[in-house]
Amino acid sequence: MFIALKIDVDTLRGTLEGVPRLAALLSRLNIDATFLFSLGPDHTGRALRRLLRPGFLRKVMRTSVGSNYGLKTLCYGTLLPGPDIGRRGADAMRAVRDAGFEVGIHTWDHVRWQDYVFRRDADWTRREMGPAVERFREIFGDDARTIGAAGWQMNSHAFALEDEFGFDYASDTRGTHPFIPVVDGRRFRCPQLPTTLPTLDELVGRDGIMVENAAEHIVAAATPNAAGCHVFTLHAELEGLAYLAIFERVLREWQARGYDIGSTRDLFSTVDVAALPAIEVVRAEVPGRSGDLAVQGKQSRLL
Questions:
Q1: The pTM is what?
Q2: Pairing mode, if any, of strands 278-285 and 180-183?
Q3: What percentage of the chain carries pLDDT values higher than 90?
Q4: Contacts for 229 with CB less than 8 Å, ≥ 6 apart
Q5: What angle do helix axes 214-221 and 244-256 make, rounded to 10 degrees?
Q6: Strand 186-187 vs strand 180-183: parallel, antiparallel, or unpaired?
Q7: Residues with Cβ < 8 Å from 210, sequence gap 6 or more?
Q8: Are 4 and 34 in contact, with CB atoms under 8 Å apart?
Q9: Exposed (0-12), middle (13-18) or buried (19+): which is 124, by Cβ within 10 Å?
Q10: Of 55-59, 194-198, 218-222, which range is least confident?
Q11: pLDDT for 105-133, tens place per residue?
C-alpha cells in the first residue's frame, strides 16, 4: 500500500507557521510529500459568507475554525486587508523546495476560487489560474508541474487550462483511483490523482469522532484497495498547527503497518498514464463537507 501526501496551504499563517512545522516533522520521519501553495491574496475572512450554506455552520462549530485559523486570519479580506501570500511567504515556500519536497499550485485566491469557479466562464477562470502560474514561476524560477484545486472545486475551463499550461498531473477531485478526466463530453489530457481518504476536518465532530481519537479513524480509512494506493490531503492550517501531534500519530501508525508514504509525484511516477481509464467528473456531496465537490464518476465511453 502506498499513501501519497498532498498538503494544501490556504493562508499566510499556514505558509509561515504550518508549512515549516510539517516539513520538519516529515524530514524527521524521512517521509516525502507534495506542498501546494496559495499564491495570491489571503481573503480567508470572506469565507464566512458561507455561513448561510447548508452544513457549513455545523462544520465551523465542530472543527473549531476560529481557534484553528486565528482571529487575524479570519479578518483578512473583511476587517483587515488580505496580505499577499506569495510575496510575504516566498522564502518559506522556497525553503520547502530546497528541503527536497515537491511544490505546486493550489490556487491564486483560495476563497474566490472555492466559492465561484463552478459558475464562472473561461475568461474568469484564466484570470484566476494565470496569475498563479506566473507567480509560481517568479518564486521558484521554474514552471509548476502539478496543481490541486482549492476545495475540490473545478469547471471544464479549468481542466482545459491544466492541459494548456502543461501540468504533468493534477489532484483536483475526490475519488478512488487515478484516471483521465472527462467533463461535459470532453476528454482532457492531464491525469487526476484524486483524494481518496477523508480529511481530518471532515471526520472530527461526526459519528463520535473527536480530536482525541481522530488519528485511529484516519489510519483505519486507508484500507488496501485494488489500486494499491491512497491520496491523503491535509492542511497546513490544521495538521501543521493544532493537529500536528495527531498527524504524527497517523504517520507513525501507517509506517508501523508497513505502508509506503510519499509525495503525489512519487505516486505519479508509478502510474501508466496510457492505461488510465477515462472517467467522468461529476458534482456530488462528500460526507463532512458542505456543498458539492468535483468527484470521480462513472467510466466514460470516450477513448
A1: 0.92
A2: parallel
A3: 81
A4: 1, 2, 3, 4, 177, 178, 196, 267, 270
A5: 40
A6: antiparallel
A7: 204
A8: yes
A9: middle
A10: 55-59
A11: 999 999 999 999 999 999 999 999 999 99
Provide the grid cell at 259: 505502508
| Lookup: cell for 243 | 493537529
CA of 117: how far to CAs of 93, 106, 127, in Å? Answer: 25, 14, 11
Contacts of residue 56, Cβ cutoff 8 Å, sequence gap at least 6: 50, 290, 291
- Is residue 131 within 8 Å of 108, Cβ to Cβ? yes
Give 49-66 pLDDT, tens digit per residue: 655 455 544 554 444 555
CA 184 to chain centre: 23
- Three-state DSSP string of the chain: CEEEEEEEECCHHHHHHHHHHHHHHHHHCCCCCEEEEECCECCHHHHHHHHHCCCHHHHHHHCCHHHHHCHHHHHECCCECCCEHHHHCHHHHHHHHHCCCEEEEEECCHHHHHHHHHHCCHHHHHHHHHHHHHHHHHHHCCCCCEECCHHHCCCHHHHHHHHHHCCCEECCCECCCCEEEEECCEECCCCECCECCCCHHHHCCCCCCCHHHHHHHHHHHCCCCCCCEEEEEEECCCCCCCCHHHHHHHHHHHHHCCCEEEEHHHHHCCCCHHHCCEEEEEEEECCCCCCEEEEEEEECCCC
Measured between alpha carbons, how far is 34 from 44 in angstroms, rounded to an integer?
A: 22
Q: What is the identity of the amino acid at 182?
A: V
pLDDT at 68: 65
Contact 280, 298 (CB under 8 A): yes
